[in-house]
Amino acid sequence: MNLKTSISSLMKDLFGVILLVFFLFLFFNIERFKEGTFPVSDVMLNVNTIFLGIVIEAVPFILLGVFVSALIQIYVSEDTLQRYLPKNAYMALLPAAVLGAIFPICECAIIPVVRRLIKKGMPLHVGVVFLVAAPILNPVVAASTFYAFRTDLTVLYARMGLAFVLAIIIGAIMYVIFKNKDQLKWTKEELTGRVVLPVETAKKPNRIKQTFYHAADEFFLMGKYLIAGAFIAALFQTLLDRNILLAIGSNEWSSTGVMMAFAFILSLCSEADAFVAASFGNTFTTGSIIAFLVYGPMLDLKNTIMLFAFFRVKFVISFMIVVTAVVFISVLSLQLFVL
């Protein structure tokens, strides 16, 4: 790593730490600020509250994700992946969607897992399926959606069914576009690490220590982008005039787009977003609420920043366009022919 890269990385880390410390300071002194001891605007206090809410909500799942990622790095070999994945590109899409239903991982935590699996040899399009399916299809999200909409399970069935089908469609489209070309951003150290050492010179490391080392390294790497994404999402939530969006959310077309925009900006954890969606029940159509619940876990502001950090720009932009178009068209079709 050259000096310029080192300084850039250090500045990013330092910015993330300063930002977090600043908001924690505001959080622990919030009563003093409200009493007027220190002059802080209501806008800043609201940004602080939303920012810390997003970070505190996401950190446990990020920890889960980086530990799963570390376990994959240490215990799962490239040969194992190649052995169990179907050779046919399209046949591999279905098992990937089914696998997404097993892991209780949200949209933030899934990024390090998918990134690690792709580095281990998982095809890009299979990783995409896992990326969009796991945050919705897992049991925790299903349970929270059930409790939030237990009086009308149409939303639950539509959310889970659409997520499963659309994950496969999105994976297939991304395969057509990229044909499994490498779309990850590799550091110099990672590229060096891809060179396999001769058997006689390779040392057998302590696997438990290596797991914790990789988890810690991944956590701090992901953490700074989570903090940046949470900060931007908090600013949008505070400064955006929601009345404008509510005013154009009265018909099927506009309400679907508005709720998808809400899902992107609010950046809610998929385990909790159903309860927020339920609060919009009297304002927006059922289809638009389904769009909120399907689109948000696949793509939101904070995970978009993380995607740009670890994947190539062309891939991320293509992914955003494909996910947005597929979800929008499918929800409109659902409203026209089913709901």
Automatic annotation (TrEMBL):
Membrane topology of this protein: Multi-pass membrane protein
Transmembrane residue ranges: 12-30, 50-76, 88-114, 126-149, 156-178, 219-240, 252-268, 274-295, 315-338
Keyword terms: Cell membrane, Membrane, Transmembrane, Transmembrane helix
Localisation per UniProt entry: Cell membrane
Principal subcellular localization: membrane
A Pfam family reported for this protein in Swiss-Prot or TrEMBL: ArsP_1
Keyword Transmembrane: yes
Record-stated family: Belongs to the UPF0718 family.
PANTHER family in the record: UPF0718 PROTEIN YCGR
Name of the protein: Permease
Upper classification of the organism: Bacteria, Bacillati, Bacillota, Bacilli, Bacillales
